[in-house]
Amino acid sequence: MIEKFTNKLSLRILLGLFVLVSFALLFTFFVLFQTFNVYLFLVVVLGTALGWVFFEDSAAKTLLFIASTSAGTILVLIAVFLFLRGFPAFQRDPIFFLTGSEWHVYREIYSLGPMIWGSIIVTFGATIIAAPMGVSSAIFIAKFSPKWLRSILKPAIELLAGIPSVVYGFIGFILLNSAIMDYFDISNMGQYFAPSIILGIMALPTITSVAEDAIDAVPEHMEKGALALGVTKWQAIKEVTLPSASSGIMAALILGIGRALGETMAVTMMIGHKTAFPSPLFDIFDPGETLTSLIASQIGEASGQAVEALMGAGLLLFLIVFVLSVTSRIIQSRLQRRFRRG
Q: What is the pTM of this model?
């Protein structure tokens, strides 16, 4: 009986290792050589099916573990892919690649300076619009809105996140760009100003939702204690609730900035695709380019060093958004620990 169990366990381990090695080879060939090996894929499928038939319990646990860790695995795989394909662009002249002012495909001169500056301008403008609106909406929904109105406002704001970005881009291109040109009497199509407004609206649901959760997490007795001292409700919110929820609100703003920074389609449809610094630098009515719109507009026709440069831009974007996301999670965790201790 013991010998039979040992043999069964050994076969289970061998089958699992065989499937794991086959999948690793399949992924390696796909990433490094862009080839999909049908035979390795069939081996993975057949091995998984055999594991399910003969070792159903272990196969179910393994598949559930893979499903639960798939998000982290995909994140690591994306990071590895971007590093392998984008890091060579930083090896030649990293300072010029990040701060230079020229992007000429035919002369094979690539620098991300204008696009980084364009991303900063557009993201900063979107934050100026979304931050006060989002935090104000969160305060009203959490503290002033009656239940029936809250049941309408919160889903309506969150529904903004479900609208496809191409729809935002279409509305911005048709209505907003033309309105700005007519109102300010300018001839430049695709300025920085219009995408900033659209991205501010697109970041609004993220900021409102996370900030509202942070305000709700503040214990009620803290605000009630302030009210018992004779202050008004707004004074209690301003002096007690908002400072207590400041970490969560900051996390909401960071996530909103990451949402605006990583948006592609809407910006690509609206911006002017001029790969040069605006003159002057803070001219929000000058046509320009951002990192995301650069990748989206040029990756289809790129080859050679241009692909490496675009992958380098993608790697830079990934690192920035990753740092912002991790920072927001750290801030939220500190907020939760503070209220647990309280």
A: 0.79
